[in-house]
Amino acid sequence: MNRKEKVYNALGKLTQNILLKDLTENSDIGFDAETISAIAQVDRSNASRELNELAREGKAIKINGRPVKFLDRSHLEQIAKLDFENGYIFDTLNDFLKFFNTADTAEKEKIEKMSDPFDRIIGSRGSLALAIKQAKAAILYPPKGLHTLITGPTGVGKTTFAEMMYQYALYAGSIPNDAKLVIFNCSEYADNPQLILSQLFGHTKGAFTGAINEKAGLVEMSDRGILLLDEIHRLPPEAQEMLFLLMDKGIYRRLGETDKYRQATVLIIGATTENINSALLKTFLRRVPMTINLPSLEERPMEERMELIEEFLINEVNNVNVPVKVHKDVIRAFLQYNCTGNIGQLKGDIQLLCARGFLDYKTYGKKEIEININFLPEHVYTGLLNQEKSRNEIINLLRYEKDYYTFTPQDRENFLTVDNYDLSDNLYKEITDKYNHYFKIGYSGSSINEIISEDIEKYLKELMKKYNAEKELPVKEELFKIISPKVYNAAEMALTLAQQKLNRTFSTRAVIGLAMHISALIERISSGEIIYSEEINKIALNNPEEFRAAKLVREVLQQELEINIPKEEIGFLTMFLSTVDSDTSYKKIGVIVLAHGESTASSIANVANSLLGTDHCRAIDMPLDVKVEEILNKTIEKVKSIDEGKGVLLLVDMGSLIAFSEIITKKTNIPTKSIENISTPIVIEAVRKSLLPEMSLYTLVEDIKNANPYIGRMVSGEVINKADITEPKVILTTCISGKGAAVKIAQLLRNTLPFLDEYNVKIKPVDITEKVNQAGNKTLYEGTINDLIAVVGTVDLQLSGVPFIPIDELIIGDGIKKIEKSISGLNAGPYEKEEISGDSVFVKLLEGMLTFLDAKKAFKFVNDSYIMLVKMLGINDTRQLKTRYIFHNCCMIERLIQNDILPYSGIEKLIKEKRDIYEKVKYTLIDIEEAFGIKVPDTEIGYIMDIFDTQ
Questions:
Q1: 290 φ/ψ angles, rounded to the nearest 5 degrees
Q2: What is the pLDDT of residues 853-873, one digit of tens each?
Q3: What span, in angstroms and rounded, lies between the C-alpha atoms of 540 and 571?
């Protein structure tokens, strides 16, 4: 039984308890994904995905709301004697119940097509609940409704809300089906009272100069319907007064008309951003009894903001009919940035972002629109720096976040998450997909094995983490508490035979990993959850020796455990044997830090080595008076001495040093790669990952780049000492519309090229309307043409020898790369790396590690607890101890906020034996618990006790 069948069976069992009377009387009918997942014993997110698929297939009835509810279609058809042709998706529970309360088939079809429009508004049961109640009361109030004012700042959706009031009036039957909603913006004619009266009420022939014909007004057009007066605060007093008769008695006159009154039944809705008491006549306000205030985006819950972001992205997907893949940090930025223009600005910013992604998609022929963090404009990107804003809400919203959120034209209700490293339920499919992908783009078999090796390694780590065996290999006494001795012995025997076949030695860790996998496999087989890819054994045939050994391993496991292992498992076992412990010498990628200054590189390397407990990171300091060639030769010798066969990563502080990599590889045949503009957190991350046995140089570089999307890529064809810049170089920006627009282009360049100050490069916007002196070398600035790097913008100044980069090439082409190349070939001025010392080291590094926690706040409270605990325990304060304590506890706080609690085997025994230490640790955590609203459980305290127990 696959996962979908399990979910469908659970839904059927639950629905069987529903009676016909429940469909007509029950105000809370249906079952949510969480309830169904518990019955089916399937992860909630997977259950939700399968339920939506069942609804699309017509097997389930879906009732939208919070939460979304589901019912089994076949059971409903049986008890209600109805025929659902394609399966129905209802907008609200009321619509669903109305369906069963309506006997006439035609009426059912009408209800199916029409539902309460307010239920489709995001926030209808949240921040807009009161406003919607007021709106419905205004529409339904007998006999003709209540005139209404809608207030709120720009962009909150006042016009949209008024349109929903009109739709609701149609839905409720308060106005005829052919009644109109007429919208008039009062600001368009605010300076001409006579014209505004004519627009509203119409005029007779000759009523004023230019009135050559009679004309009906908007009041007449909106008779029996609704007239929306947008920006009503711009309505002049005489126009407000002329509305009195219409509002009081339902009569009015056209402009210039004196002999008769006309009749009209019009519900007036006004929308304004202003204080109504100061903008409108008191006599007018007395005639408008209902005022509805719409909240700003800032005042609305973060959950609703997430829904708005999702809805706007789906709208853009359907506009272009192309899937859009959005990086998680882009979503987080939209959740946190200061969106002063409210919903209107949020929608506009998302549209602009999608437009830029669409240009990229068309320009480079991509299969989907991919939106990464580097696409964000500065005002949105600052949201990622807003550490104080609704942190807990955001982490809850993104609790199941992956690297990307993917939106497709076919899915208007739910978004999918993409995670290239999720091997839990789709282990075999992931291996197959990755193999096919890398094979298709030309990777060698050994390279593919290296990549898949990383996935196998991660899978084994997840298994060990599940059983709390990740940190170190447990002794057998402890191991047998989490793995059956029978399974462990079978795995050990199987790998012993595999060793003989392959002439290799497998570690104890490999035995434990295989035993845990087999334990999990047995559980999956018994529950029917395992799904294999048909191609995995085809992949396995690329490793014939391991494939033969895997068949033997399967036979041994089947005999020893007396179980039937599917033959498709041979594929995984082949990959396991091919990759696990594949490098018994445990070769590592070398890491060298190169930085200008007397001791900058050494300081950074020492911090990384100290925190990671290693001496793996090497340093080469580059004093400003030393020639680049000398440093290059020194680097070559260092690369030769540390290379273990997997290559060397160079972490450099300036772009010109990036050329070292290519030169060294050519001279030594040792693979090297460079990453520039490095910082201490980047070095720590690079060193940490370089020590992983499964890591390749290519993957390491990609990981570091992906983790730091704003690291500039500056490639220089030659190594040039930058220590001689004294005069600034200049980039001119131009725009056909004048200097103001050129300033905007200059700002774009400053945001895109953060290293300009390092290279002493200035950006000067120019006004092309000013005259340029063509007689000499001087242009619009004090300097020569030789000082110019480029002209960027929409107007080519045609300066001899100065490249012109059009604005479109700057945004979607190679313009940035051209500028980078020009800059990196310049001589640079003195450069000094920022020195970090004392406790700021911890804060700096925590900022790079913590996902959402405020690094400064976390460090303060954790450091205070450390100082207190060291004194209470009477032990020596060492940097190593402090480092372990600070980083462990800060990460612990983040985990506990997310309700991710680590287990600790034997915690009761530990507390009993070391009650005094336990009480002291617990006491020092009180301030942390209060500051972050968490409760530190005993299992977590056990790990803190272990930190001090190892000293």
A1: -110, 125
A2: 677 888 889 998 999 998 888
A3: 5
